[in-house]
Amino acid sequence: MQVKDGLRIVGLGHYVPDNTVTNDDLSKIVDTNDEWIATRTGIRKRHFVTTERNQDMAIAAAKMAIKDAGIDPLEIGACIVATIRPDNMTPAVACMVQKEVGLPTEIPCFDINAACSGFMYGVRVMRGMLMQSDKRYGLVIGSETLSKVLNMEDRGTCILFGDGAGAAVIELSDDHRYFSILGTKGDDEVLVCPNDGDRFVRMNGQEVFKFAVSTAPDTINQILDMAGLSADDIDHYVCHQANLRIISSVAKKCKQSIDKFYVNLDEYGNTSSASIPIALSEMKQKGLLKSGDKVVCAGFGGGLTWCGAYFEI
Ligand code: UT7
Questions:
Q1: Exposed site from 25, 32, 198, 244, fewest CB < 10 Å?
Q2: 242 lines ligand 1 (CB under 6 A)
Q3: Does 193 qualify as catalytic in the annotation?
């Protein structure tokens, strides 16, 4: 039984399909244009799967995170995949990760669904599981094939989303503080993706926008209170990558420079549960995450759900 209070991200990885779809490509399919999409969202392109399954992306991201952590897969005590669109109802994506990555067989591996907040939900659940595990590390993945649930005749949604996966190896730590907030307000009208009949994403964009620009700054302020820090103390903010106007509004409300907010939605669009771990993995790859850095993450999405977390690198 481990009773450490904090949590450390030991390794990060991500995978996005090679196939890119630009705004101009979409303007040939639906009545839209690059100028509208770029101005209203900040998105320039996104990556869509061709042959990849959700599990292929999750496995690739997991292998990169484990390599980055420099650990043996057999040291992992649980695997959680956050996704709204698993390849199968069963087996879970996490079970296929166990098989292909070579995780131990005597550990729990399962999927969770908290839409765009899923990865941060997964980290918090993993923390609780590690407290009862005799193994040191947990593997948390966000992986989405959203292109499979896009109505390519609905210009209000099909331009927003992309595919990809991000993964983190975490361990409990006494030296790295961790605080998190998870929230839920059940609503099946504002943002829905049914799993029978019409299986496409439907969304009231303006309502989600309003929800995001009020919830994310509130969540960040609550996290800062929990950590006993001010907004200026934070080195990096990592918001769910849905819309640059949302991230700009959050930065403004928190009285912080937009430069402290990592942005990659221009390249990937909104990858739901994968967006925050892809961003963290890219930041590490680029050398942006330095030992001792303070990071605040904030997300929001279907459910409706929201999430926030404070990490120390
Ligand atoms: O992970 C969470 C998932 N969702 C989100 O984060 C979404 C949050 N919401 C948003 O990002 C924005 O609301 C959108 C980008 C979805 C839409 O931007 P908006 O500024 O709220 O636009 P709107 O829905 O008010 O539409 C404005 C106009 C409408 O035309 P009219 O009625 O003014 O003539 C739309 O029909 O823009 C039109 N429009 C488009 N035009 C060109 C809507 N989508 C498009 C499009 N291309 N793709």
A1: 198
A2: yes
A3: no
206 CA closest ligand 1 atom index: 13
Closest by CA position to 43, among listed 269, 264, 246, 282: 269
Q: Which of 121, 160, 116, 165 is nearest to 16 (CA)?
A: 165
User: How far, in Å, CA of 83 to CA of 141, rounded?
Assistant: 9
Query: What local confidence, expressed as pLDDT, does residue 3 receive?
Result: 55
Residue identifier of the C-alpha nearest atom 30 of ligand 1:
156
CB atoms within 10 A of CB 210: 12
Verify whether residue 14 is a known catalytic residue. Answer: no
Q: Evaluate whether 192 touches 229 at the Cβ level (below 8 Å).
A: no
CB atoms within 10 A of CB 158: 21
Tens digit of pLDDT for each residue in 175-187?
Answer: 999 999 999 999 9
Residues of the chain with pLDDT under 70: 1-4
Question: Active site includes 240?
Answer: yes
Whether omega for the bond prior to residue 217 falls within 30 degrees of 0, making it cis, is: no
Quick: pLDDT tens for 127-141.
Answer: 999 999 999 999 999
Residue 1 pLDDT: 46
Output the CA 156–ligand 1 centroid distance in Å. 5
Q: Which residue has the tokens 């496409």?
A: 200
Q: Give residue-wise pLDDT tens across range 145-159.
A: 999 999 999 999 999
